[in-house]
Amino acid sequence: MAFESQDRPDGANRSGFAAEIKNLRKLRGISQRELATTLGINFTYLSKLENGRAEPPSEETVRKLGSSLAPTQSDADALAERLLALAGKVPPELKRRAASDHNFASAIRELTAADEAQIRAVRTLLGRSTLSAKRQAKAR
Q1: CATH no., domain 1-89
Q2: How far is Cα 89 from Cα 116, in angstroms, rounded to an integer?
Q3: In 49, 88, 102, 118, which residue has its Cα 20 to 30 A from 32's Cα atom?
């Protein structure tokens, strides 16, 4: 099962993240208390996340959400990446590279002004599936 992000021009979508985790939790038949226990977070925090009243959790917790809510373990990485995108999380390696490479940092700044069509074009140019495969290989 593929989990493709529905990108929005305004970036992170807290209500999209909230709705996604709530819908997936219900689809899997898991209670909020059970999921919160699995994730090692407070039940009330999960409730606030699902209602869009709290900032998204750390990348580690979002990845745990992916593992807990994916229909199969093979879908967990793709779901985690989708949830990270919905939560507006930026990979730490992007921050490190921007700090050490001024051309890269300039390109990222230019992307902030890009419209949705331009972002899709950049993703196509970069070969999103190739990048995902590299990221998965790096994680192993």
Answers
A1: 1.10.260.40
A2: 18
A3: 88
